[in-house]
Design brief:
The chain is of the alpha+beta class. It contains 16 helices and 16 strands. The strands form three sheets. Strands 1, 2, 3, 4, 5 and 6 form a six-stranded mixed sheet that branches. Strands 7, 12, 13, 14, 15 and 16 form a six-stranded mixed sheet that branches. Strands 9-10-8-11 form a four-stranded antiparallel sheet. Helix 14 crosses helix 15.
């Protein structure tokens, strides 16, 4: 699946050649408007919409939107950096026609992710989608590597009729229980139909651990398209829930206690179409390159939390012994390890072997999360890093000496701690560039300041219906 190269004022010739026919086809399907979507630094999906007849103009000249959203917080207040957060200026949103989808859950609407460029036609240094595309392109050009990625989506379903601001689970029954599937059978069947109509292959859809919680796993794509798909999946889940009188939260924690909503990343690197995580001579079939790639991510996990667990609510989820992966550890099929090496079943190793990164939630901007994880892995590959000893079981059981000997340490417990690790990490900051890196730090510290003095229940309530 292709993804948009940098857009240009006046439109890319290949887009201009097909947009008129595409617009006619959309109108014939009664599509009245196009949702133009991107994800800001705080992890909030921001949009503009245009009538279908204006798609030609959007492809040619973009749609205006202020750059101030790069430093918006989740509560819509604004922080600043030396170059971002001002009311001045304008950017142009350019839709990626390769990813445009008619929304099965929102009759009359289509959806497309966008790249943002300046009015002068230059890349916007704060555009997360452009950042991820650059990381993927550089990996192909410098290392001959491509990637397959997917993002798990967990969400909590509440009753739309519940008192304002409260979360009342929409379904009863045990974790992974058949009761939940039966009670929400119509909703989940409509979800499957909508994803089929949108050409999104579903691997699994099932009740999860927490009250009212479900999870969906979808097919892997190249990283940019995988991040796009994650945003589209959530748009669809929310739209279908609204039609069934339900309310959706993708927040890392909908309550102060219990298991939260994750957004685990699955990633494999490939050369000439061959999966480097299978068929190799290293542990569990990894090639030396795959093992070094995993080791690079492991080494940078504390700093990575600034982009993978970016909300104050993220740290309500990141607790030991809840399968959130809160220690710097790896293991084969070990669900308490931050990095889970997935080998797949016999006969499926080449297709299924990948790495799961667990300390990730859906408050994360998926483009930033994937881009930074890949940058960390590439640094490990370039330095031929070796993986330490794997762990089994729950790393929370280790005493201080044993943990230190294994290199197992607790991930940051707060956003300020994550930012300290992030600011000290020259690899991640260099990959992001100064504008985007400073935005990450400013927004995280702004979120921390916004909840100062709140207890855990108040933090959960503050972010419950934001994501």
């Amino acid at each position: 699946m292709t993804t948009l190269a940098d857009p240009v004022p006046g439109g890319r010739p290949e887009d201009l050649r097909r947009v008129a026919a595409l617009t006619t086809g959309l109108a014939a399907r009664d599509v009245r408007g196009i949702v133009l979507a991107y994800v800001d630094t705080a992890g909030v999906c921001r949009i503009k919409t245009v009538p279908t007849a204006r798609l030609v103009a959007a492809v040619s000249w973009g749609v205006g939107m202020s750059p101030v959203f790069d430093t918006f917080l989740a509560n819509d207040s604004v922080v600043t950096t030396d170059v971002l957060g001002s009311p001045d200026g304008d950017l142009r949103l350019y839709p990626d026609l390769d990813q445009l989808v008619v929304l099965a859950g929102q009759p009359g609407w289509a959806w497309a992710p966008v790249d943002r460029i300046t009015q002068e036609g230059a890349r916007h240094p704060g555009c997360a989608r452009t950042f991820l595309r650059r990381i993927v392109t550089d990996a192909a050009e410098r290392h001959g590597l491509t990637f397959r990625a997917a993002i798990e989506v967990e969400w909590s379903l509440g009753l739309d009729s519940a008192p304002a601001g409260e979360f009342v689970p929409a379904v009863s029954g045990p974790a992974y229980g058949a009761i939940r599937q039966v009670e929400l059978s119509d909703y989940t069947a409509d979800l499957l139909a909508a994803f089929e109509a949108q050409d999104v292959p579903v691997d699994q859809l099932h009740p999860e651990y927490a009250p009212g919680q479900f999870e969906i796993s979808v097919g892997a794509l190249d990283p940019v398209a995988a991040a796009d798909r994650s945003v589209l999946v959530r748009q669809t889940i929310r739209a279908l829930a609204a039609r069934h009188g339900l309310r959706v939260s993708f927040a890392p924690a909908v309550s102060a206690e219990g298991v939260g909503n994750g957004g685990h990343l699955h990633l494999s690197c490939r050369r000439d179409g061959v999966n480097l995580h299978a068929g190799g001579e290293r542990r569990y079939g990894m090639t030396p390159e795959a093992e070094s790639f995993v080791a690079g991510i492991l080494a940078r996990l504390p700093a990575l939390t600034a982009v993978t667990a970016p909300s104050p609510a993220s740290h309500l989820r990141l607790r030991p012994s809840q399968w959130a992966g809160v220690f710097t550890a790896w293991g084969r099929e070990t669900r308490e390890a931050a990095l889970r090496v997935v080998t797949g079943t016999a006969g499926r190793h080449e297709q299924d072997a990948n790495l799961e990164v667990k300390p990730v939630d859906l408050a994360a901007n998926p483009y930033l999360a994937l881009g930074c994880v890949i940058a960390a892995g590439l640094d490990g590959l370039a330095g031929a890093r070796t993986l330490p000893e794997e762990i089994t079981g729950d790393p929370a059981r280790y005493g201080p000496d044993e943990a230190a000997a294994l290199g197992v340490r607790r991930l940051p417990r707060s956003l300020p701690e994550s930012v300290r690790e992030f600011r000290a990490d020259t690899v991640l900051r260099s990959a992001l560039g100064p504008v985007l890196a400073d935005a990450v730090s400013a927004v995280r510290l702004g979120e921390a300041a916004a909840v100062e003095g709140l207890d855990d229940a108040q933090v959960a309530a503050a972010y419950r219906w934001v994501y």
